Amino acid sequence: MIEAIKNHKSIRKYRPDAISGEVLDSVLKAGTRASTTGNMQVYSMVVTTDPVLKEKLWEAHFRQDMVKTAPVHITFCADFNRFNTWCRQRDAKPGYDNFLSFFTAAIDALLASQNVCLEAESQGLGICYLGTATYNADLISDILELPAGVVPVAAIVMGYPEGEVPLTERLPMDAVVHKEKYKNFSSEDIDRIYKEREESAQTAELLKINGLETLAQIFTDKRYTKNDNEFFSEKYLNFIRKQGFL
Amino acid sequence: MIEAIKNHKSIRKYRPDAISGEVLDSVLKAGTRASTTGNMQVYSMVVTTDPVLKEKLWEAHFRQDMVKTAPVHITFCADFNRFNTWCRQRDAKPGYDNFLSFFTAAIDALLASQNVCLEAESQGLGICYLGTATYNADLISDILELPAGVVPVAAIVMGYPEGEVPLTERLPMDAVVHKEKYKNFSSEDIDRIYKEREESAQTAELLKINGLETLAQIFTDKRYTKNDNEFFSEKYLNFIRKQGFL
Predict the structure, then answer these.
(1) Using CB atoms and an 8 Å cut-off, which of residues 97-156 of chain B contact chain A?
(2) How far is B57 from chain A (nearest CA, A)?
(3) Which helix (H) or strand (E) is A232 found in, with range?
(4) Which long-range contacts (CB under 8 A, 24 or more apart) does A225-234 make?
């Protein structure tokens, strides 16, 4: 297996060492080799290293330390702005003010992001995706001065890792792989698939700290609650609309 | 640069050779190593090789030959079905019936898909993304019997390439990379960025065939028209809603 894929870990602690321009350029170039719809390349990568801007991004990303400590922050955006500008300059009427176009551009951005992450890891860097990019896309947009047609869909921090972290376990393969058609899960399947994770020492610790009965409740009641999901859904949809996609 | 990233090409012609179970498993396993939000792994990969099912998928993917000729077809889905089933079985109330949860799951699926593609390429296979996965997500769902909570976001074909294809050119790096903040494009920037592509022999040929004046019009008037985009936006949003995410 490609080493960078096999050894991928989310890195949350970084050494202060800068990333050289040469290394950073090659990592970004790897992003541009990913497939994009119709080779339109309707995405952008905003690379932020300035401490003042990173401090603002840190606020938008729920004050996660790594946004300040990692030397590089990259925001991956669904981006029809450049393409639309080109169309208008070439006597062509762009029809990309709709959800499908947003989603198409989001796919471009996300495939590029994964190339960037793997190439970074293959060069000894560490990365961590920030789920908060969609939560506070509007604030991030203000900080990075994104024009209409541009919406953040993912963000990462990048730098040289401080210390070692173990590989994260994954569910058994049949939790995510379906042969030929979708095969739904029996109650026994669910028990088996989640068994190892539910019986881990880490889960016991989490349940004790949170005073909850099941690992699933940690997700539904603490980490990803219905209230938060609904609040941020509305906020993200409003922003996608504001940027001209709905 | 990682060889598979550097040499990536979309492959549209395949040899009939099957992919061994061992190779396929290792490629799918690479998918599972990608980051997912909160390690929830809210995605699925439906791997279809059966010719009868592939014939149906071929219809849904606008009858693109490669869907029939490539030995393997993989549909990557945003998938909260397994997670919701687990929650309900563990006395936890899932709150994932909203747009943010759909988009979170779509990110999981897309990052996994890129890992799968790169690992496949590193093992001598070729792949091609099918943009039609979002256009006809509803038809694909019928064929693959996807339950509520599951929405196709990408699909690929995979197999051993027939013949050679050249690398596809990309726009200059500053078309997609922004330093610190977003830098909008002047009219001169646009001219420079698109110059090589607009002046290519391939473009001259396309304009002649289509009787159009500019390359941009090929996109707006032929390949990705406003009417089509609006039609498929509505259809995709309706399907996302039907699957319980809006």
Answers:
(1) 98-101, 103-104, 106-107, 110-115, 117-119, 122, 128-129, 131, 134-135, 143-147, 150, 153-154
(2) 11
(3) helix A226-242
(4) A225/B95, A226/B93, A226/B94, A226/B95, A226/B96, A226/B98, A227/B95, A229/B95, A229/B96, A229/B98, A229/B100, A229/B101, A230/B95, A230/B98, A230/B100, A232/A134, A232/A135, A232/B100, A233/B98, A233/B99, A233/B100, A233/B101
Q: A191-237: per-residue pLDDT in tens? A: 999 999 999 999 999 999 999 999 999 999 999 999 999 999 999 99
Q: Is A62 helix (H, G, I), strand (E, B) or coil?
A: coil
Domain range summary for chain A, segments of one domain joined by +: 3-166
Q: What does the pLDDT read at residue A19?
A: 98
> Which residue is closest to B112 within chain A, CA to CA?
A114
B205-238 pLDDT, tens digit each: 999 999 999 999 999 999 999 999 999 999 999 9
Is A123 exposed, middle or buried (CB count within 10 Å of its CB: 0-12, 13-18, 19+)? middle
Amino acid symbol at B169: E
Residue B22 identity (one-letter amino acid): E
Which 5-34 residues of chain A touch chain B by CB within 8 A? 5-6, 8, 10, 25-26, 28-34
What is the spatial distance between Cα B18 and Cα A72, in angstroms, rounded to a whole number? 43
pLDDT, tens digit (0-9, with 9 covering 90-100), for B19-74: 999 999 999 999 999 999 999 999 999 999 999 999 999 999 999 999 999 999 99
| Closest to B75 in 3D by CA, of A236, A182, A212 | A182
* Chain-chain contact of B176 with A101 (C-beta, under 8 angstroms): no
Counting residues of chain A whose pLDDT is more than 90, the rounded percentage is 100
Q: Kindly state the average pLDDT of the residues A69-93.
A: 98
Question: Chain A contact for B220, CB < 8 A?
Answer: yes
On average, the pLDDT of chain B sits at: 98
State the count of interchain CB pairs (< 8 A) between A and B: 338
> Would you state the CATH architecture of domain A3-166?
3-Layer(aba) Sandwich (3.40)
**Span A143-169, mean pLDDT?**
97
pTM to 2 decimal places: 0.98
Q: What's the complex ipTM? A: 0.98
Question: Token pair of A180, please?
Answer: 């030929």
Search chain B and give the residue with CA nearest A186: B85
